[in-house]
TrEMBL record:
One of its GO terms (cellular component) is plasma membrane. PANTHER family: GGDEF DOMAIN PROTEIN, REGULATORY COMPONENTS OF SENSORY TRANSDUCTION SYSTEM. One of its GO terms (molecular function) is diguanylate cyclase activity. InterPro entries: CBS_dom, CBS_dom_sf, Diguanylate_Cyclase, GGDEF_dom, Nucleotide_cyclase, Rev_trsase/Diguanyl_cyclase. GO terms for biological process: cell adhesion involved in single-species biofilm formation; negative regulation of bacterial-type flagellum-dependent cell motility. Residues 163-317 form the GGDEF domain. SUPFAM superfamilies: CBS-domain pair (SSF54631), Nucleotide cyclase (SSF55073). The lineage of its organism: Bacteria, Bacillati, Bacillota, Bacilli, Bacillales. This is GGDEF domain-containing protein.
Amino acid sequence: MQLTIGDIAEEATIVSPFNKCEDVYAIFNEHASLEGIVVCTDQHAVGLVMKTHFYQKLSTKYGFDLFMKRTVDLVMNKKPLVVEYSLPIAEAGALAMKRNLDHLYDYVIVIKQDRLYGIVSIKNLLIKLAEVQVQVARYSNPLTGLPGNYAIEETLQEILAEENFSVLYVDIDTFKVFNDSYGFKEGDELIRATADIICDIVLTTCNHPSFVGHIGGDDFIAVLPNYNYDRICRSIISRFDQLVRKVYSEDEIKKGYVTAISRKGKLEKFPLVSISIAVITNINMSFVTVKQLSKEAAKVKKRCKTIPKSVFLTMEDCWEEVMPFVTE
């Protein structure tokens, strides 16, 4: 699962809006490394006092005498950046960098269930973003930029501990024939377009942090911390089948097949590319290891391959041999 802003949040130093500026001054003096203080009412963040801004106000003509005996709400930033715990750090970083120059280096305030959770300094945010970017570059697939096998293994290990999860194993059927017929460039474009479809649907449909990875070649994986796979699978299949109509000629679409040299060296008819999705959940089966998960997925994928059109199947479909969802 991707790192969220809440994962790197630190405990915040807080005061009430009714605390005097002299209280804030004393806190900053006592804690020299402290950069800011969150102003709270009943654990709800209502403002932020950064040390640099606070000292600037005190250093103005008569500022010290004007503010020290007055409440902190007169000097606080009433509209600080406040984000939810679950926001990915990349998105939090983008929001932080869009702030006015005067507040560019202010704390990011993190809340969880509408209550103050902590703060993240810009320094720590940038360091963590850099670490994530290095990790992504090291372990991502060079063709699609999606997380590769290292991140996939790590994510699957994590999801096994979740109460509810769905894992979608996605691959393109008869891709080798397409690659041999149209060339590697067109094959790479098809893989990239498929990756875009899966990411767009999974990451925008799921309301909880989800994951999409590229196992390699024409194989992908999506991990959901819930059982909302049905709509996602149908949408992936619909979008992929629309894509297929753009990569073949009208004649090939009409016939529904292409002719190509088989592994036996003979000219044969092959179906147009389609997409298969094997869905593994822990609704009716518990998994202890990733190996168990992969073994069950292999069975479902094998069954998917017997259907010459885009399809998604669950473990239960294979157990019960019910009619799967296929395209018209």
